[in-house]
Amino acid sequence: MSETMYVAGSGALVQQMRLEVLSNNLSNVNTVGFKEDRTVFRAYLPGASGSIEEVSDIELISGNQGHLQYLPSNFHVEFEGTKTSFAPGQLKHTGNELDVGLDGKGFFCIQTPDGVCYTRKGNFSVNENGVLATQEGLPVLGRGGEIKIEGRNIAIDVEGNISVDGKKVGTMKIIDFQRPYALDKVGDTLFAQSTEEVGEKIAEEVNVNQGFLELSNVDAVKVMTEMIEVLRAYESYQKVIRCVDEINSKAINEVGTLA
């Protein structure tokens, strides 16, 4: 394979991965507490290192003048993975006394079979054991462990203190970490620590809002615009590959033949 075709092929693959990530973000635009992902890829250039996030592959490959013959021989682009954006989503008023939205930094602590996980998804319920839980029945942890809900009138103040029928039953455990967050997605808007060396701390810059939910932080219009850009870039790489293939074909079949 020629170097130019290899470069164009690597760029096309990156665009394909970007499209998959953008599609997943768009499909979760209405998921409570969802945090969007951004693609990260590495451009290999002579004497350069580091990852480049969400840049235009077409500019990288074609350059300002669009002359592919000036590409360095070891230039290519590789997909490295995704990076989660922890930007807050909008708070929506629901009026449900078990809906809780966080305004500021921090995460709810959820007890799962695999250990404690963290989330911004606050549409809670009371499970069959009378414990405050997620919609999937996983217990929401307080500073003293699970929070029992026995009564009818539930009140949650801005500090996360929970009272039932006027009696305090616990305080929600809202945890924060040092930035950048070393957290990995484990499904259903839950995050787990990517390393045990990252210590959790009680969140300070946060208000707990009863009767509100934090929506997804995905901007649907922006994502759809990016998807159009990705499709156009992918088509450009396809044209480059076809062009190079035609040139190679002519070089093989026509150059050097007798008239």
Structure class: alpha+beta
Unreliable segments (pLDDT under 50, ≥5 consecutive)?
50-73
Task: Give the overall shape.
Answer: elongated
Residues in β-strands, percent: 25-35%
Helix-strand pattern, N to C? HEEHEEEEEEEEEEEEEEEEEEH
Number of helices: 3
Number of strands: 20
Domain unit count: 2
* Major β-sheet annotation: 4 strands, antiparallel
Percent of residues in helices comes to 25-40%
Question: If you average the pLDDT, what whole number results?
Answer: 84
Radius of gyration: 25 Å
Spatially, the strands of the biggest sheet line up as 7-6-15-18
Can you characterise this structure?
By secondary structure, the protein is of the alpha+beta class. It is built from three helices and 20 strands. The chain has helices spanning 3-27, 57-62, 220-253, and strands at 37-44, 51-53, 76-84, 91-93, 100-104, 107-112, 115-119, 125-126, 132-133, 141-142, 145-146, 154-156, 161-164, 167-171, 174-176, 183-187, 190-193, 201-202, 206-210, 212-214. The strands form eight sheets. It has a four-stranded antiparallel sheet, with no helix packed on it. Strands 2-1-3 form a three-stranded antiparallel sheet. A hairpin with a 6-residue loop joins β1 and β2. The protein starts with a helix and ends in a 6-residue tail after the last helix. The model is unreliable at 50-73 (pLDDT under 50).
